[in-house]
Design brief:
Blueprint lengths: L1 E5 L2 H7 L2 H21 L3 E6 L2 E5 L2 H4 L4 H14 L12 E5 L5 E5 L8 E5 L1 H12 L4 E5 H7 L6 E5 L8 E6 L9
Parallel strand pairs: 4-7
Antiparallel strand pairs: 1-3, 1-4, 2-3, 5-6, 7-9, 8-9
Helix pairs in contact: 2-4
């Protein structure tokens, strides 16, 4: 699971005209969905300043954690976090691997309002995204171990709101010359 959100979007909305802010968010949505689709994600939601991508073994194959991490790297690159002049929009990303309920959610019997993912692992991915600094992807240890060959990444132990135990994460950043694949 991958959550990506825009940092400081409320301040941006205050500082920009409504039209300019809308254009910025549409550019972000387009960049995010392009990366997610290219890496075989199911784009679960575009809501507010956040985009959610799910990586199912049936869509992505048995090593579904790898394309999620690849997407995180590509999202950081696509938003300019490796550029000398800085990003055109600041984002934070959370990536976690685990079992979740994925299905329909409805408010009225017999109707389908939404298809979404629910559960503790989804909450972990969302919390990681919220705790990532601009230009960071926080990758859970479960995802890091599932991918297996990411090299040495900074470790960060985090206390997540609503959870009784802390979680070990790895911090992914990009710089000029970083590989996109």
């Amino acid at each position: 699971m991958l959550f990506v959100d825009v940092r400081g979007s409320s301040s941006l909305a205050e500082q920009m005209t409504a039209g300019d802010f809308s254009q910025l968010m549409n550019r972000f949505y387009q960049a995010a969905t392009d990366v997610l689709v290219r890496t075989d994600a199911f784009v679960d939601n575009l809501v507010g300043d956040e985009v959610i991508g799910l990586y199912f073994p049936l869509f992505t194959g048995p090593n579904h954690a790898r394309p999620a991490v690849l997407a995180a790297r590509q999202l950081l690159m696509a938003t300019g976090h490796a550029e000398k002049q800085g990003p055109w929009v600041r984002i934070g990303i959370g990536v976690h691997t685990g079992i979740a309920f994925v299905g329909t959610v409805s408010g009225v019997e017999g109707s389908i309002d939404n298809i979404t993912a629910l559960g503790d692992n989804v909450n972990v991915a969302a919390r990681l995204a919220s705790m990532a600094a601009p230009g960071e992807a926080l990758i859970s240890e479960a995802t890091y171990a599932a991918v297996g060959d990411l090299g040495e990444l900074e470790q960060r132990q985090l206390e997540l709101r609503g959870r009784s135990t802390s979680i070990l994460t790895r911090v992914l950043r990009v710089s000029a010359g970083s590989p996109t694949a």
